[in-house]
Amino acid sequence: MAVNTVANVIMRLGFSSSIFFSEELNQFLIILVTFVGISEAARMGRHIRMSAFTDMLGPRASKVMMIFITLGTASLLFLLAWYSVDYVSSLITSNRLTPALRIPYYLTVLIVPFGLCVTGIQFVLAALTNILKPGTHLSYQVEDTFDDADEHHL
Asked: Tens of pLDDT along the chain (154 residues)?
């Protein structure tokens, strides 16, 4: 994405002509990075979370809350994946093409249902890890740790 953007700027400034597909390619790459990235963030326990409330709870209540949150998040992601499959299906039947590259538009968003579904699976695995293992886990491989020493730095 960076190489494409820099090349387009050089072309525009140096040769007064843009790369005709540059903006479109960057849009596709942003979609790809986003929906691959959310799954990786969930796998590594690096997703955005509001931990102030759960940090005040005891270990057992925090664990129960984490199970509830991860299952709720997984459910929402699977629902969004379902809707995105419907959207991709409608794009397939519309035969819509991208303006610059003239490729079927649905190819550019196929990663969306896949990314949402894989991320949902990551949250289900986090819930199962919290159910089956001691401690509170942000993902199936990352345990939540709270250090009282961090409180003094605030």
From this structure: 999 999 999 999 999 888 889 999 999 999 999 999 999 999 998 887 777 777 788 888 889 999 999 999 999 999 999 999 999 999 999 999 999 999 999 999 999 999 999 999 999 999 999 999 998 888 888 888 765 444 444 4
Per the listing, tokens 């949250």 go with 123
Is 62 contained in some domain? yes
- How many domains is the chain partitioned into structurally? 1
* Residue where the block lists tokens 């969004």: 80
Q: Using an 8 Å Cβ cutoff, are 65 and 142 in contact? A: no
Dihedral of the alpha carbons of 107, 111, 112, 115, in degrees to the nearest 10: 170
Tokens of 1: 């994405």
Q: What's the maximum distance between 2 C-alpha atoms anywhere in the chain?
A: 64
